[in-house]
Specification:
Length: 299
């Protein structure tokens, strides 16, 4: 019925990428999610995947390393949306949006200027460049809330929480060591038509209340089109507050990942941001390939 994922990275299934598909980032998680969505579309059944990632990985957003990771992420997301759009067209349902089934989000906060603490003299050297990302963020009060968690909730029945991200380092089996714990309740399992309302369901609702600052009845059925639309509505309103030139204090933090999907499923930077850059940065949302950094370090 539904997936909710929190991951510091979302990279994989390079065999489906539009280019650079020889890259050694072959974990099948994005493929499996895509195939499940396409199967559900073919069977005229509902399915919704909600995937939460950072706006950009830790580090300087303009750096070659960060841009390379964002480039792999863009190719991964694009490969998923292209196949979902293709399936909708084959089924004669082109009027439906791929975001009815798959959505990527991030977290952000916004403070009003009067609430931002002035930097101490010991930090003054960090603010020497008036165009630096930190200076601009300090002036605008815009900050990402960094997603460092690694969590999967399936059908409100099983929760897996651990150290593994959705990337090749974690999923390769011969690189990083990982650990996770899976929790479920035998008395609360999904049926063909509904998700259970046990402790995992309550935990997912608590997670969503934390990131949206809302607790709504529509959240109880996460696979429904109404829930997908409502989550996107909340995220879009928060995004508008985040990028607004006005001084705004945000109390809800879910935002859409700043991309758009064209009629063929290709990924573009959001038209609401200048030059395709993250707000207050010179860093491309879509990333850029690196000729210097080996892919084993960024996948």
């Amino acid at each position: 019925h539904t997936l909710y994922i929190e991951s510091q990275y979302f990279l994989g299934s390079s065999h489906l990428w539009t280019n650079q598909n020889e890259t050694k980032c072959g974990n099948l998680i994005p493929t499996e999610i895509t195939l499940k969505i396409c199967e559900k579309i073919h069977r005229h059944e509902r399915f919704a995947a909600y995937i939460l990632v950072p706006l950009w990985p830790e580090g300087i957003p303009e750096s070659s390393c960060t841009q390379a990771i964002l480039h792999w992420q863009k190719l991964t997301i694009e490969s998923m949306y292209r196949r979902i759009v293709e399936t909708l067209k084959k089924e004669g349902r082109s009027s439906e949006s791929p975001k009815d089934y798959l959505n990527f989000y991030a977290l952000a906060r916004r403070e009003i200027s009067s609430n931002i603490t002035k930097s101490s003299s010991s930090e003054s050297s960090l603010f020497m460049n008036p165009l630096s990302t930190r200076v601009l963020a300090h002036k605008t009060g815009r900050h990402q809330i960094y997603v460092h968690s690694k969590m999967l909730i399936v059908d409100d029945a099983v929760a897996i929480i651990g150290s593994a991200n959705v990337n090749q380092r974690s999923m390769d089996g011969a690189r990083d060591s990982e650990i996770a714990v899976a929790s479920y309740q035998p008395a609360h399992l999904p049926t063909a038509s509904s998700v259970p309302h046990g402790d995992v369901h309550g935990f997912r609702l608590h997670c969503w209340a934390t990131i949206t600052n809302k607790m709504e009845d529509v959240f109880k059925d996460p696979s429904s089109i109404q829930c997908a639309h409502r989550m996107n509505e909340i995220a879009e309103q928060n995004w508008n507050d985040f990028i607004s030139p006005q001084d705004i204090e945000m109390d809800s933090h879910l935002i859409p990942y700043p991309i758009e999907i064209d009629e063929n499923g290709y990924v573009l930077a959001s038209s609401t941001i200048l030059q395709g850059f993250f707000p207050d940065t010179k860093a491309s949302v879509l990333g850029a390939p690196s000729l210097q950094i080996p892919e084993i370090l960024t996948t």
